[in-house]
Amino acid sequence: MKTGTAPAAPGALPLIGHAGRLARDRLGFLEDLRALGPVVRIRLGRTPVYVVNSPDLVQRMLVAGNGVEFDKGGPFFDQATQLVGNGLSTAPAGPHRPMRALLRPVFARHRLPRHTERFRDCALEVSSAWVPGQVIDAYTEMKRLAVAVLARTLFLAPEDRQAVEAVEAVEAVEAVEAVQRNVPLLLSALATRMMVPGSNRLPTLENLRYARAARETRQAVGAMVRRRMSDRTDHGDLMSALVPPDRPAIHTEQEVYDQVITFFIGGTETMAGLLSWTLHLLTGHPREYERLEAELSAVLGDRPVTHQDLQRLPHMRRVLNESLRLHPPVWLLSRVTLVDTELAGHRLPAGAGVLFSPYSLHRDPAVFAGPERFDPDRWLDARVERRQREAFMPFGAGARRCIGDAFGLAEAQVALAVMLRRWRVRAQPGSRPEPLLRMTMRPQGVRLVLDRRAH
Ligand code: HEM
């Protein structure tokens, strides 16, 4: 096929290219680009970057092209490696393959029933602190929940707290607290660094806080990692899967540390975003909210949610899917071309940055009818089309698909089941939620009033 350069998006300014538009109106800009064709060229500063708008081409990049024509990299990416070192999400395709195989058992499905208990404990703890009439900021509360879940599932199974010798329990608690305190700080500083290249070298207050947060986290989590690497007990948590007690160590201390931090980075803002967007959507759609409450009452009655229940909550799964379609927490992803390559007849030179946006793919009216509408029933088996499943990429696709997808969906289901059985939430009058685009897309200003349910 004859190949040519991809069409350039209009409106580039001399020095900054499209960076200004991208900074001002990211979602609108990405949706406008979709209308220009399957592959569009923009400029960030002087550097050309290709934006891929077609689900088929994105699937090709992520599945067949992964490690051959495309790899992790591209704009905004390099800063992330500063924080997570050589963790799974930043590893290039070569080392990624064996690393992923080693980590697969950490998120094995047979561990989910046990994690479900942790999800439930954490959701109970967070929602028990609420009082009737209180107004909560949904994202803040859901982030507290997501950090607690990871801290517990990684290295502090509660039944172990009494059993383990005192010093280890103290270390585990310190590690959990250090993570709870510092991870939100690390993430927000990282977002600034990704958006403003070079900002990590400035002596700003945020950078000083970042350095202190990174030091504290390293000390506390490092101590925990060291202890668990010399410990021979299976605690049934994610750390025991990462450092199996019955086998010789397969990771160095640094590698284990990098993976632990990677899980925290991958599994907190995303989860907090999913849960708070979902609560926001439910409060705005009373009929869907009532259907969900009815499903929860029918399936759970008065007993606590268990892992077996999760398959019996299909409407909840469709609500979560629809929330992920409309508000995918990972809204923009990047890759780099490994060789000169071609997409839809357009030539992409080796080393080029490539962007694609799950947000924009999920709102393409050619794929999803009425894309702005919140309609959980579009995910009914009888209604959903194959091309819609293929265009739906909240967890990515192919070899780099989210390793925590089943864990995250189970966590979301349990959290919603616990919270919505105890509380009825409604939007605070006058609140106007907006998406805030950082490393993840989160809702800002989802203020919810809490009423106790009769349950
Ligand atoms: C709603 C929740 C979540 C969403 C929307 C989400 C989204 C994603 C996406 C889109 C990717 C692919 C990135 C790419 O292709 O460049 C990814 C990868 C990853 N996620 Fe998640 N994630 C979620 C939850 C979690 C959780 C709970 C964990 C861990 C506890 C996790 C850990 C990871 C890791 C380690 C990777 C890298 C996988 C690899 O490169 O092999 N994520 N996630």
Write down the secondary-structure element order.
Answer: HHEEHEHHHEHHHHHHHHHEEEEHHHEEEE
Task: Summarize the main sheet.
Answer: 5 strands, mixed
Work out the radius of gyration: 22 Å
Count helical runs: 18
What do we call the CATH topology of the domain at 1-82 and 332-371?
Uridine Diphospho-n-acetylenolpyruvylglucosamine Reductase, domain 2
In the sheet with the most strands, the strands line up as 1-2-8-5-3
As a percent range, the share of strand residues is: 5-15%
Q: What is the level-2 CATH architecture name of the domain at 1-82 and 332-371? A: 2-Layer Sandwich
Overview of this structure, please?
This protein is α+β, with helices and mostly antiparallel strands. The chain has a domain at about 1-80 and about 330-370: 2-Layer Sandwich (Uridine Diphospho-n-acetylenolpyruvylglucosamine Reductase, domain 2), CATH 3.30.43.20. It is about 50% helix and about 10% strand. It has helices spanning about 20-25, 25-35, 55-60, 80-85, 95-105, 110-130, 140-155, 160-165, 165-195, 205-230, 240, 255-265, 270-285, 285-300, 315-325, 360, 385-390, 405-420, and strands at about 40-45, 45-50, 70, 135, 335, 340-345, 345-350, 355, 425, 435, 440-445, 445-450. A five-stranded mixed beta sheet has the order 1-2-8-5-3. It has a three-stranded antiparallel beta sheet with strand order 4-12-9. A hairpin with a 2-residue loop joins strand 1 and strand 2 (about 45-50). It is globular, with a radius of gyration of 22 Å. The relative contact order is 0.17. Bound molecules: protoporphyrin IX containing FE (HEM). Protoporphyrin IX containing FE binds next to helix 12, helix 13 and helix 18.
